[in-house]
Amino acid sequence: MAQGAFSDAERFGQVLCIPRVSMADGALATEPRRKSRTRVARPIAVYLFVLALVALVPAFIFSAVLLQRNNETQERVVETLITGTARSIVQSVDREINANITTLKVLSANPALLGGDMEAFHRQVTDALAGTGSFIFVLDDEMNTVMTSRRSYVAGRQGRSSDPEAGLRAMASDVPIAANMVKGVISQEFVVNVLLGVRDTAAGDVVLGFNRSASQLAPVLLANRLPDGWNVALVDGNGKVVAASPGAGTTGDVFGLSNVSGMSSTTEWRELDVDGQPSVVVAQRSLLSDWTVVGWAPRDIVTRPLANAFWSLLAGGVLLAALVVLVVYWVSLAIGRSVQGLEADAKRLGAGQPVEARSFPIAEIETVSTALGDASRRRQAAETEVRFLMRELAHRSKNQMTVIAAMAKQTARGAESVPEFVSSFEKRIFGLARSTDLLLAHGVAGVDLRELIVNQIDPFCPVDGARVSVEGPAMRLNAQAAQILGMAAHELATNAVKYGAFAGEGGSLKVRWERQGEAIAFRWREIGAVPGTATPRRGFGTTVLENMVGRSLGAEVKREAHPDGIEWRFSIPVVALDPAYVAGGKAEH
Q1: If you average pLDDT over every residue of the chain, what do you get?
Q2: Is residue 497 left, alpha or beta, with left meaning phi > 0 and alpha meaning psi from -120 to 50?
Q3: Nearest Cα to 359, choosing from 349, 374, 369?
Q4: 8 Å CB contact between 523 and 567
Q5: Domains within the chain, CATH numbers bracketed
Q6: How far apart, in whole angstroms, are the C-alpha atoms of residue 124 and residue 115?
Q7: What's the pTM?
């Protein structure tokens, strides 16, 4: 008997989940698990800054690359523009020279010139070129001036030409020649001459010249405007400035930028050092003369758009970075405050205090706060249930002591020997324990009626399971009803083994229940038991069925004998079985 009691108590300890922990195990359980690697925790602002850098740095690099590509493209565009402009200026100069050549060719067929009548020729060209700023002169074979429209006609030689070499070349050539700039003897200013050799006149071979001031070519030079910062100059074959843009030189000055004779027309600019300053230069040579149009500008004029764009990008980047820093700082503060709020809620939850969900500016953190609030409510409910179960357990333990004492007295009255008493009492204790197991397993939710009945019948059930049928709707019982109906089912199963359906072969048991209004109709029907063969005296089973079920649960109990067996009927009020009935404070007294 002591051994059985010890086994049952041990089983109760397992049901209550009381762990057996040694001192070493306890130390291991309470000691925090050490991390295999130490990781440095960083503020969320660090990760936000890294994220911002990851987003901004590639964007700035990409913008710088695009800026560089754009600048290269812009340089190519400016290079093409300057080269085209220089070519256009050269073409304008060539048109002027070509117009002068045309004039000379027309005048070369003048009858007065061919007849040697210089006075008549002077009169005609003076009238034709009046107000144009252009003049005509004639040189003899010794390069002396015999006629010029710059002054009144004077017969005979009027002085030697200022550029006799050009005159000799023109006389020896079959094509007109655009001479280099010279300083006129009569005008005492820099002039440019276009010369044409005329043979077989009455005065012999002569040179017909078209003369104009070099300053008159400046408008032609500046008709095509260059970008700001660019200079342009028309340089003759001797390296002297014929005409130039303002600040680029004065007519007659020696062009000091480069050796013009070594320059050829190019489709792109070249790098030169001008007055110690890196510059880019373009050159275009005239097709009708030895003249060259030169355009140049400091290198920084070309690179200035890139520098301006770079500094604009840098300023915009600094402003954007400052804005990002402010946004990151604001976001980190918002997240930090939210995380601190979660930390405080988690500490309250760990201390068992109630935690309510709060509103946060970040949806994910608000979701965590909601989860903490739900966890707090579940914990409070679980703790309430545990406290209730502990009180209920203490209360039920006292009641069970009373029930066990009554079971012992009733069993002792019906026992004829000590072994019979021990066996009967032990079986009833185990039946009560099975009901208690179910109660502890389900807590305040209540014990399932079907599970309770099956648990009590199983130890007595024959091998042929088809002989037992348990049917009824799902129903849960409170602690008191579970203990009482569990003991009742145990006693009925015990009687079925001794005298009823399980006493012989072929017997069967049918257990049915259903709801009828505000009561539960419960039927225990045994087939195969012989009526009247039950125990002749009133024992503990009858006491349980009539007194405990009838009185404690307020049920009506009836026993009916049939030709093929017996039947027990119970009509139990629903309120006596409902788990909420006891949980709500209307438990048994």
Answers
A1: 78
A2: alpha
A3: 369
A4: yes
A5: 94-212 (3.30.450.20), 218-302 (3.30.450.20), 391-583 (3.30.565.10)
A6: 14
A7: 0.49
